[in-house]
Structures are given as structure tokens and as C-alpha cells.
């Protein structure tokens, strides 16, 4: 018995083959459809919601892997249509986004959040800023930079001058520099004139 071909206006729309069923033209599926062992070649556009339990790209997915990509040079592209931020969200039963990896296209910063708060970001110059800009944090370049409660740079530890290799412990404002042990100040250098 040969194949069975379904045509419409003299155009083949569906045909049976030794391997299964061939659909040479577009397939429009409405409603709830369960599909098993489906191979799709070419470009497929899905305009509505699609649910799959396990997705393999270039390979049949390994058990317990929801997305499995295998290629000689695998790539994932997340592209914003404007300057909005691109995000990867990590959620649970109580919240959709307690953990976030975000790329801000406006200022070209990569941000990392845990517990619904930003904890670290990498600015466009490659500086690492720990904690959010409105809280006390620090950055790591050639030195550790601490910000005050308003997010202004104030405290420095590291190499501040390219003219020497000295180690600097610096406070850029007219305030004290304290050295503590056991939660108690042992040495204090005041801001001006710098008495110990």
C-alpha cells in the first residue's frame, strides 16, 4: 500500500510516509494538543503559549533536564527590542523573582540580586560593586571602594596612585578613621588635622 496524500486546491497538505506523517505546509493547531516524538525541521513560529516538559535542542534531552542544548558551539541569545533590561529570574512557590540576573542596556551594567535585593553589579567599566548603590558596599578595581549611606564613594583600601605601589587606607571626607578589635576602637585618626 502506498502513501495517503491529503490535498487542498491541488496542493499537498499532508502525506503518510514510511517514517510517519509529513506536513509540507503550515500547521495551525488550536486548543489543547498532546504531541509525542515530534521532529520539526526549519523555522517554527509559535504565537501563543506552548508547554513542554522537556526540551532538547540539537539532541534528545537527558532525563531530569528541562532544557538540553547540544552543539559544537552552543549559544543562547536574549535580546531586548529596545533599551529595557534583559533578565533571568529564579523563583519559587512564594515569589517569581527572589533571585535575578539582569543586564541593564541603558547603562550597560550586569546586576545580580538575591532575596529581592541587588547584591552586586558590574558597571560598564568592569568595576565590581558589591551591594546596592544606596547601601554601604564596595567595589573592586585596583582597590576596594566603600560608599557611604547615600551611595557616595568615601572609603578606599588599596593602590590609589599609579605613581607608586603604596597601600592606601583612605577616607575621602573629613571624618574619622578607626581601627577596631573586639568591636572596640583602639586607634582613631581624626579627619582634620589627622591626630592619632
Molecular structure report:
The chain is mainly beta and 196 residues long. The protein has no helices and 16 strands. It has strands at 5-8, 11-16, 21-22, 55-57, 67-69, 86-90, 99-104, 109-114, 117-122, 128-130, 138-140, 143-147, 153-158, 168-171, 177-181, 184-189. The strands form four sheets. It has a nine-stranded antiparallel beta sheet, with no helix packed on it. A hairpin with a 2-residue loop joins strand 15 and strand 16 (184-189). The model has no long low-confidence stretch (mean pLDDT 82).
Describe how the helices and strands are arranged.
Elements: E1 5-8, E2 11-16, E3 21-22, E4 55-57, E5 67-69, E6 86-90, E7 99-104, E8 109-114, E9 117-122, E10 128-130, E11 138-140, E12 143-147, E13 153-158, E14 168-171, E15 177-181, E16 184-189
Helix segment tally: 0
Name the helix and strand elements from N-terminus to C-terminus, one letter apiece: EEEEEEEEEEEEEEEE
- Taken as a percent bin, the fraction of beta residues is 35-45%
The secondary-structure class comes to mainly beta
Which whole number gives the mean pLDDT? 82
Rg from C-alpha positions?
29 Å
3D shape: rod-shaped
Describe the biggest sheet?
Answer: 9 strands, antiparallel
How many β strands by DSSP? 16
Low-confidence stretches: none
Estimated helix fraction: under 10%
| Cα-to-Cα separation, first versus last residue | 101 Å
Q: Provide the spatial order of strands within the biggest beta sheet.
A: 6-7-8-9-10-11-12-13-14
